[in-house]
Amino acid sequence: MESPLDRTLDACLNRASEGLRVLMDVARFELDHRELSESLKGLRHRLIQIFQSDLPSASELLHARRSEQDVSRPSDSSKTPPAYGDLAALVQANSRRAEEALRTLEEFSRLTDSTRARAVEHLRYECYDLHRKIALVAQEQSIRGKMDFELYVVTDEKLSMGRGLTEVVTQAIRGGAGCIQLREKRQDKKTVLAQAKEVRKITRDEGVTFIVNDHLDIALEVGADGVHVGQEDLPLSAARRLSRGSLLIGVSTHNREQALEAQEGGAGYVNIGPIFQTQTKGVPVHPVGPDLIREMKPILTAPFTTMGGIHLDNVEEVILAGADRVAVVSEVVAAEDIEGAARGMVEAIARAKEKRETIAQESSD
Questions:
Q1: Cβ-contact 244, 216 below 8 angstroms
Q2: Which of 236, 248, 296, 304 can bridge 226 by disulfide, Cβ–Cβ 3.0-4.6 Å?
Q3: Model's pTM, two decimal places?
Q4: Helix ranges (DSSP H) in 207-310
Q5: Which residues pair with 152 in a beta bridge?
Q6: How far apart are CA 344 and CA 191, in angstroms?
Q7: Alpha helix (H) ranges present in 207-314?
Q8: What is the pLDDT of residues 228-253, one digit of tens each?
Q9: Active-site amino acid positions
Q10: Do 37 and 27 form a contact (C-beta atoms < 8 A)?
Q11: How far apart are CA 106 and CA 113, in angstroms?
Q12: For residues 27 and 134, is the Cβ–Cβ distance under 8 A?
Protein backbone atom coordinates (compact mmCIF):
# COMPACT_ATOMS: atom_id res chain seq x y z
CA MET A 1 0.00 0.00 0.00
CA GLU A 2 1.29 3.44 -0.90
CA SER A 3 2.52 5.46 2.06
CA PRO A 4 1.46 9.13 2.34
CA LEU A 5 5.16 9.91 2.72
CA ASP A 6 6.29 8.19 -0.43
CA ARG A 7 5.40 11.03 -2.76
CA THR A 8 7.42 13.53 -0.73
CA LEU A 9 10.35 11.15 -0.43
CA ASP A 10 10.30 10.44 -4.17
CA ALA A 11 10.27 14.13 -5.09
CA CYS A 12 13.06 15.06 -2.67
CA LEU A 13 15.18 12.06 -3.55
CA ASN A 14 14.95 13.07 -7.20
CA ARG A 15 15.74 16.70 -6.38
CA ALA A 16 18.80 15.81 -4.30
CA SER A 17 20.02 13.27 -6.83
CA GLU A 18 19.56 15.69 -9.74
CA GLY A 19 21.39 18.49 -7.92
CA LEU A 20 24.29 16.20 -7.11
CA ARG A 21 24.37 14.93 -10.68
CA VAL A 22 24.69 18.49 -12.03
CA LEU A 23 27.51 19.19 -9.57
CA MET A 24 29.22 15.96 -10.51
CA ASP A 25 29.11 16.90 -14.21
CA VAL A 26 30.41 20.38 -13.43
CA ALA A 27 33.36 18.91 -11.52
CA ARG A 28 34.04 16.34 -14.23
CA PHE A 29 33.53 18.23 -17.48
CA GLU A 30 33.87 21.92 -16.60
CA LEU A 31 36.44 21.90 -13.82
CA ASP A 32 38.33 18.69 -14.78
CA HIS A 33 38.49 17.88 -11.08
CA ARG A 34 38.62 14.10 -10.60
CA GLU A 35 38.55 14.12 -6.79
CA LEU A 36 35.46 16.31 -6.56
CA SER A 37 33.70 14.37 -9.29
CA GLU A 38 34.31 11.05 -7.56
CA SER A 39 33.24 12.41 -4.17
CA LEU A 40 29.97 13.76 -5.56
CA LYS A 41 29.34 10.54 -7.44
CA GLY A 42 29.88 8.52 -4.28
CA LEU A 43 27.56 10.74 -2.24
CA ARG A 44 24.83 10.46 -4.84
CA HIS A 45 25.08 6.67 -5.03
CA ARG A 46 25.02 6.29 -1.24
CA LEU A 47 21.92 8.46 -1.05
CA ILE A 48 20.05 6.32 -3.54
CA GLN A 49 21.23 3.16 -1.82
CA ILE A 50 19.92 4.32 1.57
CA PHE A 51 16.37 4.55 0.24
CA GLN A 52 16.47 1.53 -2.03
CA SER A 53 17.93 -0.80 0.58
CA ASP A 54 15.10 -0.50 3.10
CA LEU A 55 12.10 -0.51 0.76
CA PRO A 56 10.21 -3.69 -0.12
CA SER A 57 10.69 -2.79 -3.76
CA ALA A 58 13.14 -0.47 -5.48
CA SER A 59 10.24 0.88 -7.52
CA GLU A 60 7.99 1.62 -4.53
CA LEU A 61 8.68 5.36 -4.58
CA LEU A 62 8.23 5.46 -8.33
CA HIS A 63 4.71 4.09 -7.94
CA ALA A 64 3.93 6.98 -5.61
CA ARG A 65 4.97 9.59 -8.12
CA ARG A 66 2.23 11.97 -9.25
CA SER A 67 4.18 14.52 -11.29
CA GLU A 68 1.15 15.35 -13.41
CA GLN A 69 -0.63 16.53 -10.26
CA ASP A 70 2.24 18.60 -8.91
CA VAL A 71 0.96 22.13 -8.28
CA SER A 72 4.43 23.50 -9.08
CA ARG A 73 4.73 21.76 -12.43
CA PRO A 74 5.68 24.40 -15.05
CA SER A 75 3.18 25.29 -17.76
CA ASP A 76 3.39 27.29 -20.97
CA SER A 77 2.50 30.41 -18.98
CA SER A 78 5.10 29.83 -16.26
CA LYS A 79 7.75 32.50 -15.82
CA THR A 80 11.07 31.63 -17.43
CA PRO A 81 13.76 31.06 -14.79
CA PRO A 82 16.55 33.68 -14.83
CA ALA A 83 19.79 32.76 -16.56
CA TYR A 84 22.82 31.89 -14.46
CA GLY A 85 25.40 34.66 -14.45
CA ASP A 86 28.29 32.23 -14.50
CA LEU A 87 29.42 28.73 -13.51
CA ALA A 88 29.73 29.73 -9.87
CA ALA A 89 26.04 30.70 -9.80
CA LEU A 90 25.05 27.34 -11.30
CA VAL A 91 27.09 25.54 -8.64
CA GLN A 92 25.48 27.61 -5.88
CA ALA A 93 21.95 26.89 -7.10
CA ASN A 94 22.43 23.14 -7.42
CA SER A 95 24.32 22.82 -4.14
CA ARG A 96 21.47 24.55 -2.33
CA ARG A 97 18.95 22.37 -4.16
CA ALA A 98 20.69 19.20 -3.02
CA GLU A 99 21.17 20.42 0.57
CA GLU A 100 17.55 21.50 0.98
CA ALA A 101 16.25 18.24 -0.46
CA LEU A 102 18.49 16.26 1.87
CA ARG A 103 17.12 18.21 4.82
CA THR A 104 13.56 17.35 3.82
CA LEU A 105 14.48 13.69 3.36
CA GLU A 106 16.06 13.68 6.80
CA GLU A 107 13.10 15.33 8.52
CA PHE A 108 10.44 13.17 6.89
CA SER A 109 12.47 10.04 7.56
CA ARG A 110 12.32 10.85 11.28
CA LEU A 111 8.59 10.04 11.12
CA THR A 112 9.24 6.40 10.31
CA ASP A 113 12.93 5.50 10.46
CA SER A 114 15.39 7.34 12.73
CA THR A 115 18.30 5.21 11.51
CA ARG A 116 17.69 6.30 7.94
CA ALA A 117 17.28 9.91 9.09
CA ARG A 118 20.70 9.79 10.78
CA ALA A 119 22.29 8.33 7.63
CA VAL A 120 20.81 11.17 5.52
CA GLU A 121 22.01 13.69 8.11
CA HIS A 122 25.58 12.50 7.61
CA LEU A 123 25.18 12.89 3.85
CA ARG A 124 23.81 16.41 4.30
CA TYR A 125 26.91 17.52 6.19
CA GLU A 126 29.11 15.87 3.60
CA CYS A 127 27.21 17.81 0.95
CA TYR A 128 27.93 21.05 2.82
CA ASP A 129 31.65 20.26 2.73
CA LEU A 130 31.62 19.43 -0.97
CA HIS A 131 29.59 22.57 -1.71
CA ARG A 132 32.36 24.70 -0.25
CA LYS A 133 35.09 22.87 -2.16
CA ILE A 134 33.44 22.94 -5.57
CA ALA A 135 32.24 26.54 -5.09
CA LEU A 136 35.80 27.71 -4.47
CA VAL A 137 37.12 25.91 -7.55
CA ALA A 138 34.22 27.12 -9.73
CA GLN A 139 34.53 30.68 -8.49
CA GLU A 140 38.24 30.80 -9.24
CA GLN A 141 37.71 29.39 -12.72
CA SER A 142 34.78 31.71 -13.37
CA ILE A 143 36.80 34.77 -12.35
CA ARG A 144 39.83 33.73 -14.37
CA GLY A 145 37.50 33.12 -17.33
CA LYS A 146 36.84 36.86 -17.41
CA MET A 147 40.42 37.28 -18.67
CA ASP A 148 39.50 35.80 -22.04
CA PHE A 149 40.28 38.93 -24.06
CA GLU A 150 43.15 40.55 -25.95
CA LEU A 151 42.24 44.23 -26.09
CA TYR A 152 41.44 46.07 -22.87
CA VAL A 153 40.13 49.62 -23.36
CA VAL A 154 40.27 52.15 -20.52
CA THR A 155 37.91 55.13 -20.64
CA ASP A 156 38.94 58.77 -20.18
CA GLU A 157 36.38 61.51 -20.68
CA LYS A 158 39.09 64.12 -21.23
CA LEU A 159 40.39 62.21 -24.28
CA SER A 160 36.98 61.32 -25.74
CA MET A 161 36.67 64.43 -27.94
CA GLY A 162 33.28 65.33 -26.45
CA ARG A 163 31.72 61.97 -27.23
CA GLY A 164 29.51 60.37 -24.60
CA LEU A 165 30.57 57.35 -22.56
CA THR A 166 27.95 55.11 -24.17
CA GLU A 167 29.22 55.90 -27.66
CA VAL A 168 32.86 55.37 -26.68
CA VAL A 169 32.22 52.03 -24.99
CA THR A 170 29.84 50.74 -27.66
CA GLN A 171 32.18 51.61 -30.51
CA ALA A 172 35.20 50.10 -28.73
CA ILE A 173 33.32 46.84 -28.20
CA ARG A 174 32.18 46.78 -31.83
CA GLY A 175 35.81 47.09 -32.79
CA GLY A 176 36.73 44.03 -30.76
CA ALA A 177 37.55 45.24 -27.24
CA GLY A 178 36.98 42.32 -24.88
CA CYS A 179 37.35 44.32 -21.68
CA ILE A 180 36.30 47.82 -20.66
CA GLN A 181 37.66 49.65 -17.63
CA LEU A 182 35.76 52.65 -16.36
CA ARG A 183 38.39 55.13 -15.22
CA GLU A 184 37.05 58.63 -14.64
CA LYS A 185 39.19 60.18 -11.92
CA ARG A 186 37.83 63.68 -12.43
CA GLN A 187 34.22 62.75 -11.61
CA ASP A 188 32.54 62.58 -8.20
CA LYS A 189 31.45 59.17 -6.97
CA LYS A 190 27.75 59.78 -7.62
CA THR A 191 28.54 60.42 -11.29
CA VAL A 192 30.88 57.44 -11.50
CA LEU A 193 28.18 55.20 -10.02
CA ALA A 194 25.70 56.32 -12.70
CA GLN A 195 28.34 55.77 -15.39
CA ALA A 196 29.18 52.33 -14.02
CA LYS A 197 25.54 51.26 -14.20
CA GLU A 198 25.45 52.41 -17.80
CA VAL A 199 28.63 50.58 -18.78
CA ARG A 200 27.62 47.46 -16.86
CA LYS A 201 24.45 47.15 -18.92
CA ILE A 202 26.32 47.53 -22.22
CA THR A 203 29.10 45.10 -21.31
CA ARG A 204 26.69 42.53 -19.91
CA ASP A 205 24.59 42.64 -23.07
CA GLU A 206 27.71 42.24 -25.21
CA GLY A 207 29.40 39.59 -23.05
CA VAL A 208 32.41 41.82 -22.36
CA THR A 209 34.42 41.96 -19.13
CA PHE A 210 33.81 45.13 -17.10
CA ILE A 211 36.35 46.54 -14.65
CA VAL A 212 35.90 49.59 -12.40
CA ASN A 213 39.02 51.55 -11.56
CA ASP A 214 39.68 52.26 -7.85
CA HIS A 215 36.09 52.18 -6.57
CA LEU A 216 35.52 48.76 -5.00
CA ASP A 217 32.18 49.82 -3.55
CA ILE A 218 30.89 50.89 -6.95
CA ALA A 219 32.15 47.68 -8.58
CA LEU A 220 30.22 45.64 -6.03
CA GLU A 221 27.10 47.80 -6.28
CA VAL A 222 26.74 47.49 -10.06
CA GLY A 223 27.86 43.87 -10.31
CA ALA A 224 31.05 44.61 -12.24
CA ASP A 225 33.36 41.74 -13.11
CA GLY A 226 36.30 43.32 -11.36
CA VAL A 227 38.09 46.27 -9.85
CA HIS A 228 41.54 47.64 -10.64
CA VAL A 229 43.77 49.10 -7.95
CA GLY A 230 47.10 50.91 -8.12
CA GLN A 231 50.07 50.83 -5.80
CA GLU A 232 48.69 53.81 -3.85
CA ASP A 233 45.07 52.61 -3.74
CA LEU A 234 43.22 50.16 -1.51
CA PRO A 235 45.61 47.29 -0.62
CA LEU A 236 45.02 44.02 -2.46
CA SER A 237 44.45 42.13 0.80
CA ALA A 238 41.69 44.55 1.80
CA ALA A 239 40.10 44.44 -1.64
CA ARG A 240 40.02 40.66 -1.56
CA ARG A 241 38.55 40.60 1.93
CA LEU A 242 35.85 43.16 1.17
CA SER A 243 34.87 41.62 -2.16
CA ARG A 244 34.74 38.11 -0.64
CA GLY A 245 36.08 36.56 -3.81
CA SER A 246 33.31 37.95 -6.01
CA LEU A 247 35.53 40.26 -8.08
CA LEU A 248 38.44 39.91 -10.43
CA ILE A 249 41.04 42.17 -8.80
CA GLY A 250 43.74 43.68 -10.99
CA VAL A 251 46.83 45.40 -9.63
CA SER A 252 49.10 47.91 -11.35
CA THR A 253 52.78 46.98 -11.01
CA HIS A 254 55.91 48.74 -12.19
CA ASN A 255 58.67 46.24 -11.45
CA ARG A 256 59.41 42.58 -10.79
CA GLU A 257 58.94 42.81 -7.03
CA GLN A 258 55.53 44.45 -7.25
CA ALA A 259 54.34 41.96 -9.86
CA LEU A 260 55.37 38.95 -7.77
CA GLU A 261 53.89 40.49 -4.63
CA ALA A 262 50.55 41.01 -6.42
CA GLN A 263 50.58 37.44 -7.66
CA GLU A 264 51.41 36.02 -4.25
CA GLY A 265 48.70 38.20 -2.73
CA GLY A 266 46.06 36.57 -4.92
CA ALA A 267 45.54 39.18 -7.64
CA GLY A 268 43.16 38.06 -10.37
CA TYR A 269 45.51 39.65 -12.86
CA VAL A 270 48.69 41.71 -12.79
CA ASN A 271 49.13 44.79 -14.95
CA ILE A 272 52.70 45.51 -16.06
CA GLY A 273 53.56 49.04 -17.11
CA PRO A 274 53.98 51.60 -18.28
CA ILE A 275 55.73 49.79 -21.10
CA PHE A 276 56.49 52.99 -23.00
CA GLN A 277 56.40 56.67 -22.12
CA THR A 278 52.87 57.93 -21.51
CA GLN A 279 51.15 61.02 -20.11
CA THR A 280 47.70 59.47 -19.85
CA LYS A 281 47.82 59.04 -16.09
CA GLY A 282 49.26 62.46 -15.48
CA VAL A 283 51.81 60.93 -13.09
CA PRO A 284 55.40 60.50 -14.25
CA VAL A 285 56.36 56.81 -14.03
CA HIS A 286 59.56 55.55 -15.63
CA PRO A 287 58.77 53.20 -18.55
CA VAL A 288 59.64 49.59 -17.81
CA GLY A 289 60.03 48.61 -21.46
CA PRO A 290 59.28 45.27 -23.15
CA ASP A 291 62.21 43.72 -21.27
CA LEU A 292 60.12 43.49 -18.11
CA ILE A 293 57.52 41.49 -20.05
CA ARG A 294 60.23 39.07 -21.17
CA GLU A 295 61.45 38.76 -17.59
CA MET A 296 58.01 38.18 -16.06
CA LYS A 297 56.45 35.95 -18.71
CA PRO A 298 58.15 32.73 -17.49
CA ILE A 299 57.53 33.35 -13.80
CA LEU A 300 54.02 34.80 -13.64
CA THR A 301 51.33 32.18 -13.24
CA ALA A 302 48.58 34.79 -12.81
CA PRO A 303 47.20 36.34 -16.02
CA PHE A 304 48.78 39.68 -16.83
CA THR A 305 47.98 42.72 -18.92
CA THR A 306 50.34 45.32 -20.35
CA MET A 307 49.72 49.05 -20.53
CA GLY A 308 51.33 52.43 -21.11
CA GLY A 309 52.14 54.12 -24.37
CA ILE A 310 51.08 51.14 -26.47
CA HIS A 311 49.99 52.08 -29.98
CA LEU A 312 49.51 50.48 -33.35
CA ASP A 313 53.13 51.07 -34.30
CA ASN A 314 54.65 49.34 -31.25
CA VAL A 315 52.09 46.73 -30.18
CA GLU A 316 53.96 44.03 -32.12
CA GLU A 317 57.01 44.61 -29.93
CA VAL A 318 54.86 44.11 -26.84
CA ILE A 319 53.33 40.88 -28.11
CA LEU A 320 56.66 39.46 -29.29
CA ALA A 321 58.01 40.12 -25.80
CA GLY A 322 55.38 37.70 -24.46
CA ALA A 323 52.24 39.71 -23.73
CA ASP A 324 48.84 38.24 -24.56
CA ARG A 325 46.67 41.17 -23.48
CA VAL A 326 47.10 44.85 -24.24
CA ALA A 327 45.41 47.74 -22.41
CA VAL A 328 45.11 51.12 -24.12
CA VAL A 329 43.52 54.48 -23.49
CA SER A 330 44.31 57.18 -26.04
CA GLU A 331 44.96 54.79 -28.93
CA VAL A 332 41.25 53.96 -29.00
CA VAL A 333 39.38 56.51 -26.86
CA ALA A 334 41.02 59.52 -28.52
CA ALA A 335 40.80 58.11 -32.07
CA GLU A 336 38.53 59.82 -34.57
CA ASP A 337 37.17 56.40 -35.50
CA ILE A 338 36.95 54.48 -32.22
CA GLU A 339 35.59 51.28 -33.74
CA GLY A 340 38.22 51.31 -36.48
CA ALA A 341 41.04 52.00 -34.02
CA ALA A 342 39.97 49.12 -31.78
CA ARG A 343 39.65 46.79 -34.75
CA GLY A 344 43.08 47.83 -35.98
CA MET A 345 44.62 46.98 -32.60
CA VAL A 346 42.87 43.61 -32.43
CA GLU A 347 44.11 42.72 -35.91
CA ALA A 348 47.65 43.90 -35.09
CA ILE A 349 47.67 41.78 -31.93
CA ALA A 350 46.54 38.74 -33.92
CA ARG A 351 49.26 39.25 -36.53
CA ALA A 352 51.90 39.67 -33.85
CA LYS A 353 50.81 36.48 -32.11
CA GLU A 354 51.03 34.56 -35.38
CA LYS A 355 54.52 35.95 -35.90
CA ARG A 356 55.50 35.00 -32.35
CA GLU A 357 54.25 31.47 -32.90
CA THR A 358 56.17 31.19 -36.16
CA ILE A 359 59.38 32.38 -34.51
CA ALA A 360 58.93 29.92 -31.67
CA GLN A 361 58.31 27.08 -34.11
CA GLU A 362 61.39 27.94 -36.15
CA SER A 363 63.50 28.10 -33.01
CA SER A 364 62.39 24.63 -31.94
CA ASP A 365 63.09 23.02 -35.33
A1: no
A2: 248
A3: 0.73
A4: 216-222, 236-243, 256-264, 289-296
A5: 179, 327
A6: 31
A7: 216-222, 236-243, 256-264, 289-296
A8: 999 999 999 999 999 988 899 999 99
A9: 183, 252, 281
A10: yes
A11: 9
A12: yes
